[in-house]
Amino acid sequence: MTDTGPDNGVAEAAHWSRALAALSVFCVDPSGLGGVWIRSPVGPVRDAWCHRLAAILPDGAPRRITPMIDDAALFGGLDLAATLAKGRPVRTRGLVDNKADTRTLLLAMAERTSPGLAARLAGAIDGDNTLAVVALDEGIERDERLPASLRDRLAFHIDLTDVPPKAADDVTPVPTRNEIVTARRRLKQVDTAADDLEALTRLAAALAVPGLRAPYLALRAARAHAALFGRTALEADDLQIAADLVLAPRLTALPESEMEEETSPPEPDSPPPDPEPNQDPEIDEDESDRLTEQRLPEEILLQAIAASLPPGLLDRLRAAAGRSRSANQSGAGRKRLGTMRGRRLPSRRSNRPAMRPIDVVETLKAAAPWQAVRRRLAPESEAPVLFHRDDIRLKRFQEQSARLVIFVVDASGSTALTRLAEAKGAIELLLSEAYSRRDQIALVAFRGTGAQVLLPPTGALVQAKRRLSALPGGGATPLAAGLKAAFALAETAAARGTTPSLAILTDGKANIRIDGTPDRPGASNDAKELGRLIRAYNIPSMVIDTAVRPQAPASELAREMGAHYLPLPQGRADALTDAVDATLRRPA
Amino acid sequence: MKAPFPFSAIVGQDEMKTALILTAIDPTIGGVLVFGDRGTGKSTAVRGLAALLPPIQVVEGCPFNCADGSENCPHCAGRTPASLVEKPTPVIDLPLGATEDRVAGALDIERALTKGEKAFEPGLLAEAHRGFLYIDEVNLLEDHLVDLLLDASASGENAVERDGLSIRHDARFVLVGSGNPEEGDLRPQLLDRFGLSVEVRSPSEIEERIEVVRRRDAFDTKPKKFLSDWAPEDAKLRERIDAARRRLAKVKASDAILKDCARLCIELGADGLRGELTLLRAMRALAAFEGKRSPNRAALKRLAPSALRHRLRRDPLDEAGSTVRVNRAVEEVLSP
Question: What ipTM was assigned to the predicted interfaces of this complex?
Fold first, then answer.
């Protein structure tokens, strides 16, 4: 509002005022709305938002938790120290078990939430009427975010990433705590006309918002908004705000059928469509027959939404549809599976406790049954717990580092003409191998002027196959770009504790440099450069030569990378899997 | 904990509801896997199911839900038999983040600390004995928990050999899982443990969608009225399930329908005999539910996809086209 800068400044200020609107509405009915998912880096903007939340939330400041919180703290458990001291079981009250009144948990670093924690919090939100979660998501990568199971239950999704700190300075009035309290009392009296409920549901369907939780949350948001403004019946304004705050951010998927169409011919360089004119036909196609009958409310709402969509949203949607819509949803889940953590083995007693960390709880457990007896034998002892050497238990873990196999596929003309189909077949075979070993997979393809991550690391094989079969062939060979993309993936994966390996299917005849300019010798050098980089990082890799006859370029590349070289066997797929297996099992 | 959403008030989703009702009638069908989109009432249905299940008789105070105080029960063995009490069929949630200790049971640290006794604290498997074990997001369950479940459900008992404890107790439960297939696959071994598998999606009819939201809203804003409005429906359904349970033993499958089943499974190359058995049991339960003396071909057609779609020997890369394959095979087998 105070920002008088160019257009985008206005848009960003609008982001901020929406975030504030969500804040006010949320405070009226925290548990009914489930919570807020805030995507934003740490910074003054997010802090400003959180301060305002703490200032007006009538239930007192929210409790801050992190994904590392243990179950006992959340759901209650046995207080070991107090139990020992008092000689009777003392339980701690968990943050969730405390049923006294409405509580709001502030989940910091929400992108690190494990699927397990997300599921339990989601269950807690479903199960009782007094819990709400404000998730502060600092994720940067698209697939690095709060797990979908929890995200889906939080009514408001806001993104503060692009809001300049200046916008947060402005003093847009938010309701006072007293106004919120008054609104809460009024909330029960707010009536919903059947029409409004219908309108929101239809709108959600028209916008292809998945699931039915969204329209319902939108309805609750509309009611809370009405209560906030002193009304007991919903007005157009309430519905608009609700649709804008709850439905619009969920518009992350084009209808399923359209997604398929989008997937088959990926057109990375098609001119960016203007979001607004495009929005309407899209919806009309889908809903024209239904909308004609009940034109009024939905159409107004649709227009409201179209107007408030962030510019470029549709472009992003198209890109996402072509690339990684559902894989993204999966990423958060699969990746954080237990294999990363190493499975805890039963602790063991040992005579050399100094060598490894002691498992305190298990040691206590081991000592506990004998306390009564030992106390009798050593009545003079002051120690609260009497330990013997035999009690000591050591921690043992079975580290089972998850593996990620990154497939890099050359879809250029030279391969496409000859053996792209065979390469695809080989990959499918390798994929099913990966499936049986529970490895993760990722898919990078390069052709024309650049490379594309067709599938970010995932365990969902069906996705991989779909992306692969839709992969068209043709164009030049930007080998270096492909290697670069794969290397980036491998690096991220390694940082997360997975062991990456590369399987590169190419004929090695690079003719596009890393900057996209055609130059055969330069391109070849670029590729070798990246090959050396990959070798320097010790990423196990193999080059599968897809040329009709095994040729020099691919084997040279393999040599630079320190990779295993393998000509794609003619019609002998099993030989290929054996070879890949041998390479990937090679110690890094 | 507020009362769950009434099962009978769930709009549509007939395949899922039927599958859950059938396992309620005959638990030996072996559980239900519900796969589908978010926000389609998967967990709502399972939680609502609890209200429809007939109560079970258990030994008073036995944490293992023991029916008769047999020698196999770690609690009841060696005690004078306690009286039997009635309690609702357990429907136990297995949360994704649960530890092995919590699932299988472990040393009761509370009693160990306070009384110096080495006692066993039963886990979720004991709680779920003779009832249902529900796992939301089952495809994200960690592998070592999956192993535990596989072992328990294959042997019908839970064995704990840890912390100096050596305990085994009966753990027979109906496994109900739900999840979103886009987020990862399920291990074939675990897949096979589910008797029926159903696919749910958001209703495509706008009217149906509106009805879903309307009922949800009524449930949340006026819960008492909503629950009392739907109580008669739930009661009716519970009675039908009860009646079907009593009738089940009398339902006989004709030779002709047995043959159809066998031919269908051969046609599909379904692994093992479990599919055939499940299909047959589900058909008999459906017949009992509908008050018929024997299952007919319509039942076969209706239940074959649920009973068989997850058992096809499949290329893991195959699209979820198995429903189509089952239906095609049914057409073939049933055509004279």
Answer: 0.77
